[in-house]
Structure formats: C-alpha cells, structure tokens
Design goal:
The chain is an all-alpha fold and about 260 residues long. It is about 60% helix and about 0% strand. The longest helix has 24 residues, at about 185-205. It starts with about 35 loop residues before the first helix and ends in a 5-residue tail after the last helix.
Length: about 260
C-alpha cells in the first residue's frame, strides 16, 4: 500500500473555495474561466474575511460589524449573505466539504484498494483543514452544544454532512470490495465511515503535534484496521455480528445522521 502521507507536501494549504491543484497545465488555447458574478464575489470576500478575523482575533471576539468593515461592505450587506456568525461557519463547512470532495476525487484516481482509498479520503480532510487548525477549538466549543447550528448533526450542517457521506460512498463504490459486501452493510457503511471521520476530526482538534503529525499517524494506523473489519464482514461466520451491528447503528445513531436527508 502506498503511504498516503507521502503526498502531503503538495496537498497543504488547500482552502475552501480554492481550486485544488491537478498537476496539469492548461492548454495554450484554453479559454479563461468565466468570472464569478459580483454577488458570489462579495459572498466569498465576506467569508474569506471572516475566516481571517476568526484566526487573528478569535471567533467570540469577532463581530459581524468588524467583518463587514474589514471586507469593505455595509453591515446590512454582510447580513444579507450571512444572517449570523454561525451561518458564516456553516458556509465555511460547505466550502470545506466541496474542496474535500474535489481533492479526494483527484487523489483516488487509479486506486482500487479499499484501505488505501479510505486513508486517502480521510487524510485529505486534514490537509484541506490545515490552515484553520489553530482556531478549530473555538469552533468545537460552539459545535459541541446540541442546540448549536454548528452541531454536525444539525439541519444547518446537513449539506456538508451529505457531501462527506457521498465522499465515502464513492470511496466504497470504486474499491475492490464495493460489490462484495452484504447489501445492508454497503448501504450503511458510508454513514459509518463519516462517523469515523468525525472521530478523526475530534482527535485533530486537540492535536498539538507539529503539523498535526499525530493525527496523520492515527489515520495511517486506523484505516487498515477499519478496512480489515470491512473485508471480514463478507464471510458468513461473522455475518450475524454484522447484522447485529447494523441493527444497533440504525436504531441509535444513523437516524440522527439521516434525519434531514429528505428535507
């Protein structure tokens, strides 16, 4: 298995809203990309400014008025695009999820081994989130509140959550085990892998090692174990345990994850 961490040097610094590098130069006669509408530019400016101020001043000490002033827009205009600081973070989550999906898709090309695909997808999140690690704890303290819209299980977080679940659905679908799993487990597994990602995110929030190397090592050690469990689930001798696990997750965990899917 190739070490997914070996690619990290060209992965760091990818931020929400940025185009991930493909390693390919544009054709000489390629047409320039169409310029985004002014409304999208303004929204992106406000969001980018907010993230910078959150880093410099902290989430709690940064006001919408300060964000608007720094971005050069009126307070009313800032509230037009984002009705609260929480919605700014929701916008950040959405952007992070899109970038994570794009980066993961590129890195998965030609890779079939399920364990390697799982490690690539999970490590890609850490790479994309790297610029925001220093104030991740502030977000976590807010997101930990069950009533907060930043809660990963909230309705407001659904778009980002659904995008992440889809990433792991693609990880499974394109792998060497995708078509060999029990149908019930295959349906549920992307949600379970998203929960695994949430565990990694929690570890990452509290990781104070240089460049969060312990988180990367944690992913590198954990994903082969997860992959082995998934592969073993194909055998009849463990099928009763698989069904018990599926039943447990469907009753106590997955309904919370999927509760807003159809909304």
């Amino acid at each position: 298995m190739n070490d997914a961490r070996a690619k990290k040097d060209d992965r760091h610094g990818t931020a929400p809203g940025a185009e991930p590098a493909t390693g390919q130069e544009a054709a000489p006669d390629a047409k320039p990309a169409a310029k985004a509408p002014k409304s999208e530019q303004t929204r992106a400016l406000i969001l980018e400014t907010a993230m910078r101020l959150f880093q410099e001043r902290g989430y709690e000490k940064t006001t919408m008025r300060a964000i608007a002033k720094e971005a050069g827009v009126s307070v009313g205009n800032a509230y037009y695009y984002f009705d609260s600081k929480a919605s700014l973070i929701t916008g950040f989550y959405d952007g992070m999820s899109r970038v994570h999906a794009q980066v993961t898709s590129e890195r998965l090309r030609g890779v079939k081994d399920f364990g390697e695909r799982l490690e690539i997808a999970t490590a890609a999140w850490v790479d994309c989130a790297r610029p925001y690690h220093q104030f991740a704890g502030q977000f976590f303290s807010t997101a930990a509140d069950p009533e907060s819209p930043l809660n990963p299980f909230s309705d407001e977080s659904h778009p980002a959550r659904a995008e992440a679940v889809q990433i792991y659905r693609d990880v499974l679908k394109g792998s060497d085990v995708g078509r060999k799993l029990d149908a019930e487990l295959a349906e549920l597994l992307p949600d379970l892998l998203w929960l695994f990602l949430m565990g990694v995110v929690l570890y990452w929030v509290f990781d104070r090692s240089e460049d969060t190397e312990r988180t990367r090592a944690f992913i590198h050690k954990c994903t082969p174990m997860v992959a082995r469990v998934v592969r073993l689930s194909r055998y009849k001798v463990v099928r009763p345990l698989v069904r018990d696990a599926v039943s447990l997750m469907e009753e106590f965990v997955i309904p919370k994850v999927r509760s807003t899917v159809d909304k």
